[in-house]
Design brief:
The complex is a heterodimer of chains A (163) and B (232). Chain A is α+β, with helices and mostly antiparallel strands. Chain A is built from four helices and six strands, in the order H-H-H-E-E-E-E-E-E-H. Chain A is elongated. The chains are: A alpha+beta (163), B mainly alpha (232). At the A-B interface, helix 1 and strand 6 of A face helix 3, helix 4, helix 6, helix 7 and helix 8 of B.
Chain lengths: 163, 232
């Protein structure tokens, strides 16, 4: 690149002052956006799903509302109905549990001990009904013969309840 | 012009392209045939070797666009502007493929094609924003094209760190970042090879795109001036 052409004809748009102003404005917008994120309460208000404990804390207010609930499928809690259409299980965050009932078809990844995120409503009797069941797999990728199963603590950590 | 000048020279970036493509073939082979299946996900996890390199490089393009944009405003060089367009366009193409591969992977693993969780939402917004930057560039008058593209890129690039850290800062359906400790050793190598290979291909594409941009400018500069109709 021997000729090194500069951007064409210096007028309004490419005058050094306009460019400096643009740079300043763009930099300012970036700084503003980042500081809002850093010092604002965005992190506090942005919760994709509730833990079973948070759902219980909300108490009767949670009943009937559209709620996203996340947790681990408790070992030994999965119960398929005889007609094969409904599925019942318990989700846990290690401290409290919620009984869940769904007619959704679970993905192949669904099993005991895996993280799930459910969209549905809390009933008065404390059962959570959902038609949208999502599996949240953790960040482990292992070969079938790998023996290092994650501990319960690590699995609960993967649900990001402290985030 | 002599014939030596008119004949196309072998550009340096072709070496990046060739090396990248060769490495990509090796990485895909290792990923599809050598790496073990995943214990819970089975074969479907192999889309990892496509999805993750795409997203890493797209993110790198979009993050880099902020710096290239700043350099373009600072130095006002045509080749920096050409590079900026290259970085944005390559980023948009990679992100489009990255989003699609994610959608394909999400259905069998999560059970849904899409969820508006922080990671997916920020990624979608970032993709949309850079499409907007390209649209802005198309609409801008010629003398404003370079500075506006640059300024818009700087603002748009703020999304890149948000996308990167979103899975650590907020609860999401998307998994948290994996690390060499959470990934089986034989799965790491093809992933790294593909990521680096795609990066080399990106360098190739961006350099090619910058050259196209420069060639267009030069063609415009040397073209006979359009007849100007003046009233009166």
């Amino acid at each position: 690149m021997s000729t090194e052409p500069t951007t064409p004809t210096p007028d309004a748009g490419s005058a050094p002052r306009t460019r400096r102003l643009l740079l300043l404005a763009a930099g300012g917008a970036v700084a503003l956006a980042l500081s809002v994120l850093a010092f604002g309460d965005v992190g506090e208000n942005l919760v994709y799903y509730w833990s079973p404990s948070e759902l219980h804390e909300a108490g009767p207010e949670a009943v009937g509302a559209s709620i996203r609930l996340g947790g681990l499928v408790e070992e030994g809690s999965v119960n398929r109905s005889a007609d094969g259409l409904t599925l019942e299980f318990t989700v846990t965050d290690g401290q409290s549990q919620v009984d869940v009932r769904t007619t959704a078809v679970p993905p192949a990844m669904f099993r005991e001990g895996i993280g799930v995120v459910l969209e549905g409503t809390m009933r008065e009797d404390g059962r959570f009904d959902t038609a949208r069941l999502m599996v949240k797999h953790d960040n482990e990728y292992q070969a079938p013969y790998a023996e290092d199963q994650r501990s319960m603590e690590e699995l609960i950590e993967s649900m990001q309840f402290d985030a | 012009m002599t014939t030596a000048e008119t004949r196309r020279a072998w550009a340096w970036e072709h070496w990046f392209g060739l090396t990248g493509l060769a490495a990509l073939i090796a990485g895909v082979y290792l990923g599809l045939f050598v790496a073990p299946t995943e214990r819970f996900m089975g074969e479907v996890y192999r889309i990892l070797y496509v999805h993750v390199p795409l997203q890493w490089n797209a993110l790198l393009c979009f993050f880099g666009a902020g710096f290239v944009g700043a350099a373009s405003l600072w130095k006002r060089k045509a080749w920096i502007d050409g590079m900026l367009v290259g970085v944005i366009e390559v980023g948009v193409v990679l992100e489009t493929a990255g989003l699609l591969s994610g959608i394909v992977w999400a259905k069998p693993t999560w059970g849904v094609y899409w969820a508006w969780d922080p990671r997916l939402t920020f990624t979608f917004v970032m993709w949309l924003t850079f499409l907007g930057v390209l649209a802005l560039r198309r609409f801008a008058e010629e003398h404003r094209r370079a500075p506006w593209t640059a300024a818009a890129s700087i603002v748009a690039s703020v999304n890149a760190p948000l996308v990167y850290y979103s899975v650590n800062w907020w609860r999401s359906i998307h998994q948290m970042q994996s690390s060499p400790e959470t990934v089986h050793t034989t799965m790491i190598l093809p992933l790294r090879i593909n990521a680096i290979a795609l990066f080399l291909v990106c360098v190739w594409f961006v350099a090619r795109r910058a050259r196209i941009s420069l060639a267009r400018r030069q063609a415009e500069a040397t073209a006979p001036p359009p007849r100007i109709l003046t009233a009166g």
